[in-house]
Predict the structure.
Amino acid sequence: MKKLFLTLVIAFAGIFTANAQVWLGGSISGVMSKDTKSFEIAPEIGYSLTSVPLTFACAADFAYINSPLREGTGLMLTPYVRYTIANVEKFSVAMDVMGQFGLMDAEGYRVGLRPIVAWMATKHWTAAFSVGFLGYDKMNYYEHGAFVLDFETAAPRFGLYYNF
């Protein structure tokens, strides 16, 4: 136990003394249609390395879903690594390599890629937009698991982040 604690202390010390930027924020997503109603809120914490175009983060997604195929609430843990592909002035295009793991009533998992477009409004505030998922899904409607290309156009994600 002492070795684990010491390893965690050293890891966090390295993260915060490295050339990194810590941020807090979250995203929301929702659908209101004839057959489906869903809402998701996902607070996040992460850090961006400034020497390389990588961001490491984790979100806790709280979701409510009411559809013909699925109904209920759930909690999912969503760790991801974001690679920034291109920066153009205040805008950036990135790709998340993400996993989503169901906790409590939300069973299953999904692992894949998620495209992101971000706008750095100020030095401290960033807004992000995401639509789509490409990967393996054994959480949503795919009881036995399936590879999916889902543009999620009915439920895009909007996020707002504060960079320290």
